[in-house]
Amino acid sequence: MTSTTVDAPKSALSRIIATGTHQRVLAFASLIVLLIGFSIASPNFMQMSNMIAILQATSVNGVLAVAVTLVIITGGIDLSVGTMMTFCAVITGVVLTYAGMPLLLGVVAAIATGALAGSLSGTFVAKMKIPPFIATLGMMLILKGLSLVISGTRPIYFNDTPGFSEISRGSLIGNLIPALPIPNGVLILFMVAALTAYILNRTVLGRYCFALGSNEESVRLSGVNTDRWKIAIYALAGAIVGIAGLLIASRLNSAQPALGLGYELEAIAAVVIGGTSLSGGRGSILGSLIGALIMAVLTNGLRVLSVAQEWQTVVTGAIIILAVYADMMRRKKPN
Fold it and tell me: Is residue 167 part of a domain?
């Protein structure tokens, strides 16, 4: 009897790990199929310059996907990450361009702004008990409006900030190995992903992230302050979104206050494609990275094949629907 009791949780955990691994392998296989398919369809697809463009595009969406992964694992959702990214970029513009502060302060301002916005969303969800969909939808509109108000509806340029464009477009690896001009934005993506994966799998915050998504009520009844941990998770996700704001502002060398809408959908699609369950309690950073690469490869491949922008949008929407449907099918399967 004791052996059965002890083995049951291990067996359940093994099934969860096996399911997650299966989804990551399936997503990776899909990525390889897309790469091969577009390579056959167009000889220009596999050129080094195009591969670099795909990685550059993945850097922003990948960082957003990492942030969204944390929130979705808790059983929540964050629709504000796109406009939050823009708001962080605008605040960076205010600090660096309008106030003329040093580059380091602009970086800190972006991350701190994201953490503050994330903690506010977490407070709405945890303390005020507003459903995550509504709370983050409201935050999305608030941040969109604030970005336009603060910037005066005009882009903020970083021409007078030395080194800012190097954050995303520079290539530390390219300086050492000219044959591999991998942008710094990609390095930042992998560093953010590695650090977040460590937090998710090796720290108390990560354990509570999974626990809240699996059974929040049980965690609360065990004496844990679930509200505090939920706010902390949203704040961490917001800080990561701040890094995405730095990357996109650096890539464009400007903060575009009207930019941002739509990024949240691609990030959520990447997370779900990577095997994170919308019901919470299951997910991985690696899977989300693979999902972000799939979205970037698909978008780039359609562009290389000269598919109209309208149809690219149609395909993206269809992928989001299929990803959510696949997640529903996974949840219906017995554990």
Answer: yes
As a whole number of angstroms, the distance between CA 232 and CA 229 comes to: 5
What are the tokens at 145?
Answer: 């409006």
**CB of 144 within 8 A of CB of 86?**
yes
Do 208 and 87 meet the contact criterion of CB atoms below 8 Å apart? no
In this structure, the dihedral spanned by the alpha carbons of residues 278, 284, 285 and 289, taken in order and rounded to 10 degrees, is -70
| CATH number, domain containing residue 307 | 1.10.3470
Which two tokens mark 77? 């959702």
Alpha-carbon span 190 to 172, nearest angstrom: 14
- Predicted model pTM: 0.90
Predicted pLDDT of residue 334: 55
* C-beta of residue 159 within 8 angstroms of C-beta of residue 253: yes
How many domains does the chain divide into? 1
pLDDT tens, residue by residue, 262-317: 899 889 989 988 889 888 888 999 999 999 999 999 989 998 888 888 888 888 78
Q: Is residue 41 part of a domain?
A: no
In three-state secondary structure terms, 132 is: helix
Domain that holds residue 165: 49-332
Length in residues, the chain: 335
133-175 pLDDT, tens digit each: 999 999 999 999 999 999 999 999 999 899 999 999 988 888 8
> Comparing C-alpha atoms, which of 289, 82, 48, 55 is closest to residue 168?
55
